[in-house]
Amino acid sequence: MTTPWTEDQVTALAPDANVLSAARKLAGRRRDAGQHEAALWGRYSGSGATPYQTIIDLSGPAYSCSCPSRKFPCKHALSLLLSWAAGEVPVVAQTASFAAAWLGGRAGRAAARVGPRIHTPNPATAEQRRMRVTAGLAELDIWLGDQVRTGLAQTDRSFHAFESIAARMVDAQAPGIASALRGLATTMATRADWPDVVLREYARIHLLVAAHRQLDDLSPALRASIRTHIGYPTPAELVRAEPAVRDRWMVFGRQISADERLYTRRTWLYGRVHRRWGLIIDHSFGSPSFPADLPALGELADAELHYYPGAAPLRALWGEQYGAAEPFTTLPVDPDRPHTIATALAAHATALGCDPWLRTWPMLLVDVVPTRTAEGWYVTESDGTALPITGTDQPWRLLGVSGGHPVTVAAEWSTGGLIPMSVFTAGEVIDLIVTDRVGRSTPNSLAARTSGTDLTSVALLGTARRTPDLDLLTPPVARATARLSTDPALRLLESAALQDVFVRGGICPSAATAPEPAADDSRRRLPRAAAARLASLLEQRSVFLPEWFDAAAPHNYRAPDALSGQLLEHATIDVGLREPLLRLAGIRGNWLAAWRPEWQSLVRQPGVPDRAEDTWRFGQPPERRDWLAELRRRDAAVARERLTAAWPTESGPIKAELLAVFAEGIAPDDEPLLEAALDDRRADVRRTAAALLALLPDSAFARRMRDRAHAWVRIEHRFRHTNLVLALPDTIDAATRRDGITDRTVEFSYRWNGAPDNAAARLRQLVAATPLTHWARLLDTPERAVRASVEDRFRQPIFDGWVDAALAQQDSSWGRALFEAGVPTDLAMLRRRELFALLPLSDRTGHLTRLDGSWLSEIEALLPAMGHPWPEPLAQHLILLLFERARAAARRPDTHGTAPNAHRSLLAAAAVHLPVTIAGAVTGVARRCADPAWENAFDQLAHDLNQRSMMLEELQ
User: Fold this and answer.
1) Who's near 730: CB < 8 A, 6+ residues apart?
2) In the predicted model, is pLDDT for residue 827 greater than 70?
3) Residue 351 · residue 358 · CB < 8 Å
């Protein structure tokens, strides 16, 4: 029986993210599934009466499905594979008839291709191709000479110029050279050191052309390398005819790239016994559907590799495998062949001596420390020996994994430096070939430091204007130039080729000092599945992140070191989740933050006793506000003393922000500071102080407001009703202005008789600042107060003031009365939601469950006040209301407002806030839907709920 694949192996087969997402939703539609040996099959219900028949030949893999999808594998095949990987497909004794028929036909077609057919090229055809290549390369050599002769600065450097000569190489059947030429157009447009790079590439190509002329005189291995670099094809059957190399191959790198619709997978393997690298390259057109025969990253397998012929063979084909792949947690140790920088450079020099056209070479460096210096990034050994790191993105992930401690790095060595592929630490291989959005870097341009400056200058001007002084080259290269071409342009190219190979082969290590390592974090590490989930949620900036952090908080986990940079980067953009993000990043994140200026303000560095004082005295406004808020939570009296002492010297908007910190836990002891703030020159400071004083019902400010309320609003109790009689002053005095009552008609926009109504604005401010106990004492209860009669002109300002007071003072009885009475304002729905949030949860739930489907808009507007997750009765009620819309859509498909798109915001909110226990009910409703769009909508909702459920289970 075939061993089940992992979920990662299955997801790698998905042609795109949409197909994978659709596949995860199909578990409830599968039936009659089974596995027998390498056969896997199942049926899936679709929009028609006949289920789709899905068959998979695991030995391929190969797929067959009766659905109309043009993507392979389709969502049904992916869903079946995911179920199989999860152990949900039973093993049976016999293959289903429909699957056996397809598998039998496939086996018959395979049998028709009897035995391995080794393609023997027609000698005439091979000679004809060689002649075409030779003619094309001769033309290219003339073009190269002309570029250098006239000067790189004078030649046409446009994309069209390179595309034209590259197309000529394609016609000449030299695709390898065509690819190199196309890349130069981008180099010229994006790199400041393009003259060095272009000269090296021209020299490399010229050397390749010269070698091709002498192809028959070279050794078979070198001849094979030259043909490969030019682009001659090598049939796979000829490669498999080469002697196999059996080893226990460890996977240290895997990368999938796409060029239009052609996907390429590169897998780097390293043998434990022979200490030899292998690179397996697979192609897939249309979708990344690669064979699942190779081990995953961090696994090893006892298998055979068949190397492509070459002078420095690296690329290979996967051969026969002996046993299943398994993770490896150690590396081979051989004192005679240590994995040091010196031995890695020596191996590269040997390979370059065999094949001077090599662009990269893999390296495995043990016990190195990633280091960031003023000159760039390095990996450093304990004695300071270092190699530069290059690449588009700064290796923050690598630095976070290391934390200043020695690790093992698998990388490719190129002309610019090391390109990290993975890091091995604590028995785990961590992928570094990822899109790291943390920062950008300028590569450590090793080639720029080692190129022939005089040769580049001559190439820019052109050999027609200047002749290079070859005696200035490295002595061994200068001596070799005596045997070069007499044509000045070709002589320059050949000299540059010799210099480039000599320099690359003789690279000496740099020197760098490793950083002080980070301290250990004793907390329990986040489980592997939860860490993978978190990385995905952060990458997508998922709406599920708040729930994830709420669930993770009680466990006090620490994040894997590889996530430190991602957590810090997210903390810079998501203020609401900053604290849990930094807590999860922990000590390692704290250490890593010190290396990037953008992160240094996020975390306080340990071991600096006066850092807190420095933050208060010299920090940025947000830092000072956060520091004071933290101190306020710990010791309110000390926080008040600090702000009181600093108050005379504070200025600018920060004053109001610092004062607003006192809203949390406000107490009578804060009154003197707030009273002093009422005399401040800044209006925002005075408004903040007045708003805070209004929260102190026994303060002098509250007494002053009650006195004004007595004077401005008179209560008349009649037999059947109560009247509010207004006696508002025409002007306000300085004391009233000091307490925050002003003519802010622009803010409130009250109008009467076509003109701004200053009196209404003042009335609202008075009512909002007066303690609600004053109105309850005069009007008996909030319910009777909201029914009191008032002049039409002042009804809205009074209600608005009561709403402001109820929200500020968090009074649920007034909130209930105002919510039930309705709020006469243009912001009615927003204000109703805020008042609704003041009610007890049971009352809120009862109100919403009494509303039917005609009130869906009202329900959706009030749902943000229901917290998380929504109560089960409300969830059930909401699903039934949506199902009613689905039934209406099935009855009358063209009716406006019944399609899922009309309720997409409600469905999105439901995916976040519905309790995960209701997922089964949602799936059941989906099966009862006659409308396909609503069926898909409910399936998506059930999928999101299941994902949240899995997310929470992974944290346990």
Assistant:
1) 759
2) no
3) yes
State yes or no: pLDDT of 560 exceeds 70: yes
Do the Cβ atoms of 280 and 269 come closer than 8 Å?
yes
3-state secondary structure of 59: coil
Residue 119 has pLDDT above 70, yes or no: no
Q: Which two tokens stand for residue 670?
A: 């804060």
User: Does position 6 have pLDDT exceeding 90, yes or no?
Assistant: no
Can you tell me the distance from the alpha carbon of 797 to that of 684, in angstroms, rounded to the nearest whole number? 22
Q: Nearest-5° angle of CA 886, CA 887, CA 889?
A: 65
CA distances from 752 to 132, 727, 759, 827 (A): 91, 16, 10, 19
User: Is the pLDDT score of 178 beyond 90?
Assistant: yes
Q: Among 773, 699, 809, 692, which residue's Cα sits nearest to residue 740?
A: 692
Annotate 495-538 with DSSP letters as a single string. HHHHHHHHHHHTPPPEE-PPPPPPPP--SPBPPHHHHHHHHHHH
CA distance 864 to 880: 19
| Residue 364, SS3 per DSSP | strand
d(CA 519, CA 545): 28
pLDDT for the residue numbered 448: 41
pLDDT-derived band of residue 823, with 50, 70 and 90 as boundaries?
low
Task: Enter the tokens of residue 895.
Answer: 């009716």
What dihedral do alpha carbons 418, 420, 425, 428 form, nearest 10°?
A: -150
Q: How far apart are CA 49 and CA 197, in angstroms?
A: 63
Residue 246's DSSP bridge partners are 304
Residues 631-681: pLDDT tens digits?
888 888 998 998 899 898 888 888 899 999 998 889 999 999 999 989 888
In Å, how far from its chain's centre is CA 450?
36
DSSP at 752: E
Determine the 3-state secondary structure of 356 from DSSP: coil
Question: Hunting for tokens 């490719």 — which residue is that?
Answer: 412
Identify residue 881 by its one-letter amino acid code: L
In Å, what is the CA distance from 324 to each residue of 327, 446, 541, 751, 803?
10, 42, 37, 81, 69
Q: Do 616 and 589 touch, CB atoms closer than 8 A?
A: no
CB 881 within 8 A of CB 853: yes
Top pLDDT among 748 and 870 is at 870
**What backbone phi and psi angles, to 5 degrees, belong to 748?**
-100, -25
Q: Residue 590 is encoded by which pair of tokens?
A: 């704290």
Paired residues of 386 in beta bridges? 380, 510
pLDDT digits (tens, 9 = 90+) for 710-767: 999 988 887 778 888 888 888 888 898 888 888 765 567 788 888 888 888 899 999 9
Helices (H), 837-916: 841-849, 856-862, 872-891, 904-913
| 221 CB burial (10 A radius; 0-12, 13-18, 19+) | middle
The pLDDT tens digits for 569-596 are 999 888 889 889 999 999 999 999 988 8
Residue 643 to residue 198: CA distance in whole angstroms: 63
pLDDT band at 85 (very low <50, low <70, confident <90, very high): confident
For residues 484 and 474, give the distance between their C-alpha atoms in angstroms, rounded to a whole number: 15
Q: N- to C-terminal Cα distance for the chain?
A: 33
777 pLDDT higher than 50 = yes
On the question of pLDDT at 705 being above 70, the answer is yes
- Return the CA Rg of the chain: 37
Q: Which residue from 339, 380, 673 is spatially nearest to 516, judged by alpha carbons?
A: 380
User: Which residues have C-beta within 8 Å of that of residue 387, sequence separation ≥ 6?
Assistant: 341, 345, 365, 378, 379, 413, 417, 418, 509, 510
Handedness of CA 470, 471, 472, 476 (dihedral sign): positive
Edge-first strand listing for the sheet containing 407-414: 428-431, 417-425, 407-414, 361-373, 376-380, 385-388, 510-511
